[in-house]
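Dock zinc ion; give full complex structure.
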Amino acid sequence: MIKKKANYDVIFPGEHLAFIEEFESGKNTFVVDGSIRSLSFGKKEYDFKKRQVVIERIKQAHFPKIGDVIVGYIEMLFGSMISIRILYLNNKKFSSGLSAIASTRIASGSGGWNSRRDRGERRPKLVYRVGDIVRGRIFSLMNSSAHATINDKDFGVVYCICYICGGDTVKLNNTIKCIECGMMEEKKLAVDFGKEVLLSLATRGE
Ligand SMILES: [Zn+2]
């Protein structure tokens, strides 16, 4: 069976749908200060006959919860934030087309970066690129977005190819190195960085 990807924007609980001047509050919605909002994860639908906006619920199991571990690729970079398109949720294939936002600022003492470096030594410039595969943990579902953290030794970039030549890369301490052209770049890497992470997800992620 071929699973169809969600081709609509997923609505989050609490998300604004319409104003009460425009529509009435329908199924799975509520009103706050004249704003109609969603009660659950779902798909927004308008009933123009009844002038109602309703939410068709989607099974909650298909959405990340706080504490869930995600693996996905960086689809966008904006300032010190990255948007991660989720490919695996708790090591299972995930095809709801949802993304999570994560900060690339590494909190000291998080275990995410060598704390020795925070004490006056050179602070590395960490570089992230679209396509890098990242693992993180969901810590908030506020403001209609899934927020993930990469501040843990298990989190960060788990694999990437060389941005110059597309070659395979290996981990050397906190640096990745292209085995083809020698390109080196510092990123916040997960301890188990390597292609094996993806291979293992692909084989048991069904
Ligand atoms: Zn290369």
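Observed: The CA atoms of residues 65 and 138 lie 7 Å apart.
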